[in-house]
Design brief:
Layout (H helix, E strand, L loop, with lengths): L1 H27 L5 E6 L13 E10 L4 E4 L6 E4 L7 H6 L8 E6 L20 E11 L3 H50 L1
Antiparallel strand pairs: 1-5, 2-3, 2-4, 2-6, 5-6
Length: about 190
């Protein structure tokens, strides 16, 4: 009887070990972003690019199927591509989609929540699966493009210019005070 119990315990321990390794392998299999088109509308003339605004419904799951979040019971989520309002993998999977399209994105951990995860819902190093429906797509207006692309570059150019002007002003102000002190000394020496 003791032999059977010992053998059963060894077998049970081996099964637990193998199951743990399989789960670990299962979690780490996803190394790159994959996007599967589930449904595409008949006409898809306009596709999304960086700067565009999308309204999406989504359901996010862990690889084991456990739902971590869903927008189906709420209003659609507003996503402006390039603003990093969602995880990197989801944002990248939304590039090139059109209104009415449904996709399934399998996102690797490094493009989701990484080693830390998002406790207690999402464990560390967890790959995620998002099923997404694009409810609406709004293209970036010329004004938005100007603000998003040109304005930051303009600011980068203006900051050193403004700092230079402030430095020049302070330099001139300091020299003007030195000059006025010399004139005051000269006047005093002439009076004597």
């Amino acid at each position: 009887m003791k032999v059977r119990t010992g053998v059963c315990l060894v077998l049970l321990a081996a099964l637990i070990f193998v199951a743990a390794q399989e789960e670990e392998v299962f979690q780490n299999v996803v190394e790159e972003l994959t996007v599967e088109i589930v449904e595409k509308p008949e006409t898809c003339d306009i596709t999304s690019e960086m700067g565009d605004t999308l309204q999406i419904h989504y359901t996010g799951r862990l690889m084991d199927g456990k739902v971590i979040d869903s927008s189906l019971s709420r209003d659609p989520l507003l996503v402006e591509l390039g603003k990093r309002t969602v995880i990197t993998g989801l944002e990248q999977s939304l590039l090139g989609v059109c209104e009415g399209q449904k996709i399934k994105a399998t996102i690797p951990p490094h493009m989701a929540y990484g080693k830390r995860g998002y406790p207690p819902t999402i464990p560390g190093d967890a790959a995620l699966v998002f099923e997404v429906e694009v409810v609406s797509l709004s293209k970036q207006t010329p004004w938005q493009k100007l603000v998003n692309d040109v304005f930051p570059m303009l600011c980068l150019a203006l900051v050193p210019t403004l700092l230079g002007l402030v430095g020049l002003y302070l330099y001139n102000k300091a020299n003007a005070q030195k000059g006025s002190k010399k004139k005051a000394k000269d006047k005093k020496s002439k009076k004597k």
